[in-house]
Amino acid sequence: MAQIFKPGADTIARSILVAMALAPLAFIAGCYAIAMSPHMTDQGVTVTQPVPFSHQHHVGGLGIDCRYCHNGVESSTVAAVPPTETCMTCHSQIWTNAAILEPVRKSLAADAPIHWSQVNRLPDYVYFDHSIHVAKGVGCTTCHGEVEHMPLMRQSSPLTMEWCLDCHRDPAPNLRALNEVFATDWKPPKDQNERGKRLMEKYQIHVANLTDCSVCHR
Amino acid sequence: MSKETTLSRRNALKLLAGQMALLVAGCSRPREEIVPYVRMPERLVPGTPLQFATTLDLGGYGRGVLCTSLEGRPIKIEGNPLHPASLGATDAFAEATIFSLYDPDRSQAVRQSGEISNWAAFLDALQPRLESLAARQGGGLRILTGPTTSPTFMRQIKSLRQRFPLLEWHAHDPLDDPSAREGAAMTFGRPLRMLQRLADADVVVSLDADPLGAGPLQILHARGFAARRQARKGGDAVARLYAVESAPTLTGANADNRLTSPLAQITAVAVAIARKLGAVMPEAPLGKEEAAFANELAQDLSAHKGRAFVMAGPALPPDVHALCHWINAQLQAPIDYFEVDGEALPSSLTNLMRDCEAGKVDSLFILGCNPAYDAPPSGRLAEAIGKAKLRAHLGSHFDETAALCEWHIPQTHILECWSDLVAPDGAASLVQPLIAPLYESRSVHEVLAAIDGSVASGHDLVRETWTASAPANEFERWWRRALQDGVIVGAAVKPASNLSPALPQMTSRAAESLMLVLRPDPCVYDGSLANNAWLQELPKPLTKEVWGNSIGIAPADAGALGIVDGDVLRLTANGRSVEAPIRIASGHAPGVLSLALGHGRTAAGRIGTGVGTNAYLLRVDSSWTIGGIVATRTGERRPRPSTQLQFSLEGEAADLFPSYTLEQFRALDGTVPETNAPTFLPAQRETGARWGMVIDTSLCIGCNACVVACQAENNSPVIGPDEVAAGRDMHWLRIDAYEIGSFGNRRTGFQPVPCMHCETAPCEPVCPTGASVHDSEGLNVQVYNRCIGTRFCEANCPYKVRRFNFFGYADGQEYGDLGADVMRAHNNPDVTVRSRGVMEKCTYCIQRISRARRAADKEDRPIADGEVVTACQSACPTRAISFGDLSQGEASVSALRREPQHYNLLGHLNTKPRTTYLAQVRNINAQLIGKEE
Description:
A: 218 residues; extended; B: 933 residues; Barwin-like endoglucanases; 29 helices; 26% helix; 20% strand
């Protein structure tokens, strides 16, 4: 009786066996990769806004401090998007007739708020507090990226739980002196690891309880 | 047929593929919007809650509160420490005010004969009538309200009388206490109001009274009671509370010595006490137990002259109240008497009905009350009201009375309007709005202004009242101070003095064979709160039943009638009858039945309509007792849903709810050593605070304020009567009621049970997904996103404090209309709203711990003792709950753990709970022990 399988069939059978073991793993890895990819996390996606407000111009060009507009950042959980009034403190004096600012003027005149699109979004079961991070030396650009180079805002970090935990396990690489928190051009100095450790001691940051579920979830 | 075949297989596959592609493409989260203010309101910081002082109303009196508002949305009520009727605590009704604000059944539009109309149309209809009324000096103009103390209201009535001199104001209070009023008039010749100071009394005798029960004085009395119930190692301050009562009350449950007697015998006890104190009056026949009790009462009272008093309940006749005044005068009792301004007293509902029937009423304004439901059912009310030419009703709901009136105007909620109220001790405070009115509604003040022909905002009307009270030229500063403090300094009334009560003539009354004693409902009060689902689902303190009421009956009487729990009984009196299921409860005197008012509404809203039995239907006048009741079995059974299904086991209370007499407590030496039995479970890593709670069961009066506070703080859903009947319950904090003492004369002991946060928590090792874990501060936390709903943890929890979302109670499958959009606004944004299929439980208000921790961390300091206050602790009127960091040895909670009566619930299980208890210590009169235990 003739051979049904050619000698090469062994190789194919072995490959199939290996593939059977690997395929589920690869599938899971693939799913994970997709879940963590910018496609799912929205990282790097530039968002269209009703008014094309440019951080590049206001922060990078004019050097306006973050807290001029985001004035809740040191005291509240949310940094706060400024009220129309804040825009108009300057724009009632300059660029008063610019077409681009028509929605802002309209908002003030009609007492109707501007509907901005949210850029950085955390799920509702995450209770993030800006003020404590700022107080402990985590700078704005650590999470929000180099806003001074962003004409329109985009989400600079993945905002996944893994990304949060990376820093909560070891905040040292991201800590700054308090006078550098709002610096938009901050780059980690060469001795950041040592400085970070010293700052952790100074700010009394204890990583032991920073990874408790109850720190962010309630 | 042809329709189905037009779709070819090819097209079907195309559509399927398209659908899948859409599904994948649609899989991203929707982008949300950020909508900032146009102009930022003063002091508001997004994400940070603000607190405003205001005043809430109960029975016309004010209780000062602080209302937490987040970005303009009121979400929580806390007590106002500066206000004398709150002292920093709340009651169940105050906590539930948040729910009533967002009640989806609130009336939302002006209606004329049931059709939607508007305010301008009402004013148009009002104008010609007012002109003709003014021409007649206001003859025929009547205003009917509920009980009120508002100074602005009084001022407006006065000012209305200038334009309409013949105007009459009637007030109707369904929970009125005419006996007390007549008793005072009998004794002092004028209507005095009194306020007992429990904190200053060593001996208190309650004769069918309920100072610790629901009402505007509950917080005040509870605090006074607690002040004299501090059994502590280094010297105790414990008063003695006696209760003689016909049917169970919270006061009786918390009494040191309690005697169950029919009302006639309670009268005889009062007479016996008076005789022992030197009164010359005929003896009243006394039973053996009552005689012994009265003897001890008289001895104890006269041994504590100046620090003892007697109080009488509304079910007792006026002459007993008068007799109590005389006894209190002999005792120089710590009671404040307040003069009542006779000129400002309203006329009664009875007078209004009489005038209506005589055709003397032209225009009737019913403001914020509901006589069609809660007035004595003469059957004439609808007809009488119908004779008025203009009938307008102002109410929060389109209720029973609204249906009788041509015009209905939605009433502004107390958290939406300007007003002012007076506390029982005379302290005035302002009501300020926390939010603009949600609907087109008007307040009582605005309607009165409209009748006066002026258009004024509530704000201006209230300011006008107080302009004269402020120092000259400093009104603005004075006004801001009054608003900020939530109490007006210097507005308190001086107590009356030089009172010399005379001994009253006692009227003899025949004893009734079967008598019904009415009580206000401890949850829905007079029925005006019936549409509040938080209160409907709140377990009644003594019986733990929810959603409705039942007839309480003594075991012997039930046996004689041959009925068991849940059998429906028909009560007939005065030609009217009601039916309700019975509940056998010791603590009822033989021949006494009890039934709570406030249920059986017919037009309360989608929550409260048709729940329970309307006890008002049996009432004659404002009487609290109905004699000559005929009780018949109907043969029907209607078991009532209840949250405490467990029956009592022999000796159970001794283990779970230990109780000491004061003598036993003083003999306790040292502290109970903490059990450190070996365990297989790994030790918890602990790096920071060790949160712990100690609950003093001597202080807990079972008032339920903590339960509603927890529900409001932690977004606990309402599940409805059917789910409760299925044995489910979503309150994170329950109050277990233990029956102590022998059968026939039991007392109830209260034990609030939140999560124990065990150090070796039995729920943790059994969770397959690690959803139940410990954090480094010793909290047993539940991670909702990990929970897959195996309910193993619930099964393994010996304290049964875990709650499972069998349905999306808060998330898509709400009870009744509670899924309405407006209801979402009451949620606390700091707490996750749990979805179907997850387990939840008490978190020790982790959001409050976290807020305090972040605040402390920002300032680089440790969290101070007392900085974290849990919702239940904050609400408690007796301060029975203490919370704090056990790692701080000097913290108050650590000190309480060293008290000798400290114990762990189910300590032998070695769960090392963080919530622990102080056993109940009662100052029992030993002479009466043999007779009553």
